[in-house]
């Protein structure tokens, strides 16, 4: 059974149209793009068709739009993988972003795996539409039960507090407290977002720096001055350049000097 499939396997050469046809025919869906399967619900039902009864379809949300809801679907999928002892790492953070390539590769692997079970023969007694509807009804009924229980608890609490007397915190004052708490939460989240943006900017700057240095080294190795030098001397020179480049990178505000300005241009370019 194919669980670990190499990147050069024929499974990863299956095209988008073939994958979409495979999904639409088996699950009776009408997907037109690979990204529409990013929620993880399609993958859950494919395994539900392959192993009937293993996937708790009432936990699968086919209407998932937010990353939070999609992650819940992938948690269900991971639980199924654990039950079936499928050793496949799910890159949830990439899949929920809806990136076409990541979702394409995961669906290619899934098709290869499903085809390896029972020779890829489809269960004729499986009704995909009925399974989706049944799962949706169970999920909605359970959600309504939770809401009704919470409402009953709140009503009992409010009734009990009414018998004892008025609450110590009046309505306007309580609203102010809630408003203050929400303002603090917004401020904390804003600060966190700012810190994340700064981290991303720093990482992008560092990435561009190292890429530029690699390009500079490539140009340097192509110069006529280094063609006749021994390999050890050339390597030592490149290491020295890299160390000085790091120094100037972290102190570029104090030393705005281009270290590679002395490199002669290749007359052949």
Give the tally of structural domains.
Answer: 2
Helix content: 55-70%
CATH architecture of the largest domain: Orthogonal Bundle
- List the total number of helices: 8
Structure description:
By secondary structure, this protein is mainly α. The protein has 2 domains: 10-136, Actin-binding Protein, T-fimbrin, domain 1 (Orthogonal Bundle); 180-262. It has helices at 16-27, 41-50, 67-84, 92-95, 100-116, 128-164, 171-221, 231-250. Helix 2 (41-50) packs parallel to helix 3 and helix 7 packs antiparallel against helix 8 (231-250).
Descriptive tags:
269 residues; mainly alpha; Actin-binding Protein, T-fimbrin, domain 1; 2 domains; 8 helices; 63% helix; flat
Short description:
This is EB1 C-terminal domain-containing protein. It is found in: Cytoplasm, Cytoskeleton, Phragmoplast; Cytoplasm, Cytoskeleton, Spindle. The chain is an all-alpha fold and 269 residues long.
Blueprint of the fold:
Layout: H1 16-27, H2 41-50, H3 67-84, H4 92-95, H5 100-116, H6 128-164, H7 171-221, H8 231-250
Helix pairs in contact: 2-3, 7-8
